[in-house]
């Protein structure tokens, strides 16, 4: 487990926010496909062409989850939250460029800052859990989301899982992903170092499910995988037994 005293949001300064869209699409092969499929999974769960209010946690950077969902479902509206001001600013620019600001309420801060009511029809948490150091912050953010969802409402969770050092072949392939894009050996080492800085992903897919279960969600369905990355859909249990 990588340890760091730095708050996760502090890693995403102006420099990192400005390159986030490009670097994320290199680091995650299938970045856009994952977001597109997340939108499809939510639409399949909620029922297509129905109004919905969706909570988007960690929207900063590309706002790609909103862009994908909005293109599929014109009657969905979004509440987006991110603790990094530079990342939220970059997301705002993307939403403005795609004509989606009027459908999105943006909040600088944390899920806990949002009121518990009205409850949301669905939520997404993409690329966040592996930046939270330790299991308790992971449980906390999942529980905070759960408390703001309607019973039975779906949640998309996506991010890295496995301890990075436990999968040396995947780690080497991850480095080759940058080399594939023209990076030198030194640049590859620098990119990997930045990604690994302070990162603490869940240790396995079972660990992701355990966190979801402890936060009041049912069994998750994985719908996307790419090296260390996985994406799942789970739903808030109709009756909270936590």
From TrEMBL:
<dbReference type="GO" id="GO:0008168">
    <property type="term" value="F:methyltransferase activity"/>
</dbReference>
<feature type="domain" description="Methyltransferase type 12">
    <location>
        <begin position="60"/>
        <end position="154"/>
    </location>
</feature>
<dbReference type="InterPro" id="IPR013217">
    <property type="entry name" value="Methyltransf_12"/>
</dbReference>
<dbReference type="Pfam" id="PF08242">
    <property type="entry name" value="Methyltransf_12"/>
</dbReference>
<keyword id="KW-0808">Transferase</keyword>
<protein>
    <submittedName>
        <fullName>Class I SAM-dependent methyltransferase</fullName>
    </submittedName>
</protein>
<dbReference type="GO" id="GO:0032259">
    <property type="term" value="P:methylation"/>
</dbReference>
<dbReference type="InterPro" id="IPR029063">
    <property type="entry name" value="SAM-dependent_MTases_sf"/>
</dbReference>
<keyword id="KW-0489">Methyltransferase</keyword>
